[in-house]
Structure formats: C-alpha cells, structure tokens
Amino acid sequence: MSSFFSEKYKALTPYTPGEQPQERKYNKLNTNESPFPPSPYAQRLARQAAGDLQLYSDPEVRGLVEIACEKFGLEKEEILFTNGSDEILNFAFMAFCDENHPAAFADVTYGFYTVFAQVNNVPYVQIPLKDDFSIDVNDYIGIHKTIFIANPNAPTGIALSKEDIVKIVESNPNNVVVIDEAYVDFGGESCLDLIHSYKNLLVTQTFSKSRSMAGARLGFGAACKELIADLNTIKYSTNPYNINRMTMAAGIGALGDEEYFKNNCQAIIENRKYTEEELKKLGFEMTDSKTNFVFAKTAKMGGQDLYLALKERGILVRHFETERLKDYNRITIGSMEQMQELIDVLKELLK
Ligand code: PMP
C-alpha cells in the first residue's frame, strides 16, 4: 500500500475473482461461465461494431434497449444496461444505501455484496441462512433495510419462490429490494414482471452466464422509472459510456437469437441433472441447484483436498475457505464432455 492511498479505503478487502489461469489449459468449472461460445449472430454483430470503435458508444444504448424492452415487456425508462451486473449492483449500493438505509443480505451469498457495502461506506447486516442453506423468508419481513437477494442464490444454487419474494417486497415498502437474477435462466422464476407492481423492486440480470457473454461485460437492472432515473444519475456521474460498441452489438445479437439461448439453457439443465446423478452415486451431497453450478461435498474427502486433487488433474472448481463452506466445492456445469471428464476423474480419486 502506498502512503498516498486514501484513509477511506485502507481497510477494504477487495473481491477475489475466481482463478483465470493462463499457464495451462484446464477443464474450467470454477467461474460459472458458459461452455458455449456466444451466438454466431452476436459474434458477427460484434465484429462489425469493431470497425466503428473510433467513435464513443451510445450512452443510451438505444438499439439494445429497444430489443430488450420488447423481449422483457419493459418501457425504455424501466431498464438500465451496465458493465456486467456487478456494475448495476454497485450502483444500487451507491443509490439506495446509507446510514438510514443499511444493506441486508445473506451470510452465504455473492461475495461482492460485502465489498460493495464497504467500498461505499454503507453499514450492512448479514442474515444467516438456515442450516440447509435455504433463506428463511421471515428474517426479511419488515426489516427496514435495503435488501439484496441473489435468486437463485450463489454459491448454494437454491431458489426462492416468487411468492416469497413478493412477501419480502411488500413488507419493506420504504426500502428498495434488489433481486439479483444472475442465474435465473437455469431453472429459477424471474421477478422481472413484478417491477410494474412494486415501486421498491429492482431486478438485475446478466448476459455472462446463460447468454455466454462473461467476457463482454453486460448486465442490466429493471425497475420503475423513478428507481432507474436514480441509477442513471449514478451512471452519468461515473461512466456514461459504460457499454462499449462491441458489447452493445453482441447484446443485440444475443437477444435476437432466442433459439440458441434456449437450447443452451436446456443443455446446461440436462448436464446438471447428469452431474447430480453421477455425483450422488459417488456419495456426494448437494443442495437443490437451479443454476449452472452444483454445490457439493463428500465425506470421503475434505473440500480443499478435493479442490487441490482435481486441480492437479487439470480440473478447476471453486473452493471457499470460510468455516461454513469449507467442506464444499462449487462446480460449474459445463459441456457433457467436461462433466464426463469430471466424473471419470472423481471415480478414480475416490475409489
Ligand atoms: N450476481 C451473482 C450472484 C454472481 O454470481 C455474479 C457473477 N459472479 C454476478 C452477479 C455478476 O456477474 P456479471 O458482473 O458478470 O454480470
């Protein structure tokens, strides 16, 4: 740390992204990316857009907003695109949390929430999940805090029902409730349509997982016009050109290729089912995942040992070192070949 670093950030513990190794080709099941490339149509549009990179991108991302509004049944003032959904989540902490509106989220959830709270100097509470890693909805009823819920949750994969979300949103009318739907396309129930009924609901989604665009950085938030206007104030005060031309073009292509998207989601769901069945045969225990990953442990080997043994054999999964999670590994669902390789290696390891 230099002597110039601002006092206000000295105690900050930044987010640790999953490993992105460059030195060796792994069977990479650690960062919940899609095993499939972006839609060919999205790739073509992105290549075309590369020819115009001398020009700033459109701060209003108009072409993309138009097709997204059509697809998701929104008006253009009800959506804001960002540089990954991480950016809209950070904007939400900036816009809707302060001393009088502390943040609240689960103790086991997306690790960036604590970092966003800290970097924005926002007080926060972490609400423990139940022993089975599910959310107790009663813990969120009328709590007078700005609530962040990943639905389905990560790294547990467990989803809350729409009725439960409605209970939480209705019981906290004076606070914003943010539903982070990064993984919703793999079996969760989206709350996007509820933004027309609730003025305090912000739903975020990403193109990183189900639309195979993690490297392009594209996410969005949907909410009533007033909330989106607030988030736009933050955007135009930080980075008006947050969506670059190639990403915007790829986003239009991704939304324009619904069949490719649907087939890929279906493939992941099928590969998840195969993986769960095989892991069960090998003695693993898992949560009920509605995502593109499983959260699994086995009594036969500790979580960290398993992570290391797999890594040595060329398979990367995500291990968390906290007391509550250390027995588990989060394993991304990849292609059938990737999952078969994982199962073969596990059979060998655990025999
Ligand atoms: N929410 C959750 C729950 C996530 O796991 C992630 C991805 N790590 C994100 C949001 C952010 O994803 P992105 O910025 O790539 O859209």
How would you characterize this protein structure?
The chain has ten helices and 13 strands. Helix content is 35%, strand content 14%. The strands form three sheets. It has a seven-stranded mixed beta sheet, with helices on both faces. Strands 9-10-13-12 form a four-stranded antiparallel beta sheet, covered by helices on one side. Strands 1-11 form a two-stranded parallel ribbon. By secondary structure, the protein is of the alpha/beta class. It is globular. Helix 1 runs antiparallel to helix 7. 4'-deoxy-4'-aminopyridoxal-5'-phosphate binds next to helix 3.
Give the gist of this structure.
With 351 residues, this protein is α/β, with parallel strands linked by helices. It is 35% helix and 14% strand. Residues 84-86, 110, 150, 154, 180, 182, 206, 208, 214, 219 line the site of 4'-deoxy-4'-aminopyridoxal-5'-phosphate.
